[in-house]
Known about the structure:
Blueprint: E1 23-24, E2 31-33, H1 39-54, H2 61-80, E3 83-89, E4 101-105, H3 119-133, E5 142-146, E6 149-161, E7 168-179, E8 186-194, H4 199-211, E9 214-215
Helix pairs in contact: 1-2
Amino acid sequence: MSTTPTPPAERQEPAPPAPLPQLRLRLPGNWWQVPLHDRAEARASVRRLVAAQVGPADDRANVRIELERRVLGALDDAIGGDGQAFHVALSIVPGVPLPVTAMVSLPAQQLTPAIGTSASATMAILERGLADLTDGGADSLHRFTAGASEVARRTRRHVVADPDSDENLPTVAVEYWMTVPGTKRFVLVAFSAPAGELEEPLTGLFDQIVRVSSWD
Length: 216
């Protein structure tokens, strides 16, 4: 007596991963968004923006040069660092061309906390990694909650070098490492600004921007 062979079970293709939530920043004042898909186009956009903001007058040449150098330095960091969005401040303070930029990037790493995808579990892993890479360790990180995200703020100081001269521009980068709700991923929101007397009030402003951000 013969039996009919059982056909092999159909292989089920894994479902595609759900799209990640998108971070929305509420940037005060007016900001210019620079496209990141093409480096040459992005740099040209920055140069046009600086020329329009500062104007062509000879007595403002130094302002144009410094503003362009600072913004182009931050732009290169965004393009080379998984940048998703790059914004340049136009008028945080009316009439004052502050070289302040905001970058949002999505690093490729996915953290693996032992249990689930809660923001606290993901941040615990992220914080340990940041502490190992930061002067002063965990004590130099500032933790807070922003909506459904846990946030670790890190401040770094560096100089933007001019390849055509020996002049360096002291710069502060204020980084906000944020957990992505419901995932083991994180985003980096990084603001760049001149180091100096405005550093403290600008950091307070950046804190507020991150606190009122939302996810779509």
